[in-house]
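Open question from group meeting: does this chain pack into something compact, or does most of it stay loose? Before anyone orders reagents, we agreed to write out a predicted structure and look at it together. Recording both the input and the output here so the notebook holds the full record.
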Amino acid sequence: MKIKDRYIANTLLTYSMVVLLVWLSIYSFFNFLAELNSVGTVNYTILEAFKYIVLQLPEVAYDQVSSIILLGCVLGMGHLATTGQLIILRASGISILKITWLTLKNAIIFLIFLTLIGELLAPTLTTYAENERSNALGQNSLSSSQDGFWIRDGDNFINVENNVDGSLFNGITVIEVNKSNKIERVVESKSALFDGQNINMDSTNIFSINSSNLFDDIALKERNLYKKRVAFDQDLIDSLEKEPQDLTTLTIVKQIQFLSDNKLRAEVFEVELYKRLVKPITLVAMILLAMLFIFGSTRDATLGRKIFFGVAIGLSFELISRIGGALALSFDFSPLLSTFVPAIVIMIIATIALINKSIH
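Structure tokens returned:
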């Protein structure tokens, strides 16, 4: 890498890190103030509140990664422009397209870094932080049980009245349906233990229904233990109480696969998955829009005002992309088209505009 290229990269990285630290500091300050209301409850101390806030920072950084990188890159380029270094770099033979390419390359590298943290580290730290906070506040996990749920597993319909901790179920009913869509068997149990592959039910009542005669024949069998093999895993059960945006990408893919196999709607998870996949394209489009303002004519407005408008338009575009996902759910649009098409269109238009500006 040339010295000039390395200098630009270091400048952009420095400003991106500064924006990241400032962003996380503001988040930590206001959330710490909110947590002070709970300090003093049981064993919840200021140190516990501080630890809770800190452990959530990787998730916050991942959620706001596009905005952080956009601000960092634009402020870095703004620094080069206001100090006259950008003019010197262009006079030394570095074109607008080359500078833009260096900006995008560093932005994508930073995006990959924060994405790895968000996908691999953030979920574990966030779960640990929530559990530690609950324990410090004296909130027993058994007393704050999850709600029940319905889930389809092939030709079976499973209802759990109370999901205690993701593996212990209270009040479970399994309805088995035959090829003719008629109920063939109903299995009931007051409690069950899920081991990731099987539902192990205690004190089970099994009602077998024979519909071949004029009247349905119902036979009852009682078992001390009944094991039911299922297709879903622990990740899917744990994800039932979470919103799609709180799940890892791998869990979302597994959710979509499971729902599709059971002929259930998966649009909510598809929209979230496509939003994550299109994030690099969206970031590129946002930066290209901002670069148009940075390299614009200085006769119309000051550089600071152009940077402000560039960032505002970039962030507005990300907001529009998120609205597109919501519209896809409301009006049954294709989630793929609603997330990818706007980003690609804006990216193409901004690229053509930058090429024209570079030529002229």
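Observations to bring back to the group:
The chain is about 60% helix and 20% strand.
The chain has a mean pLDDT of 81.
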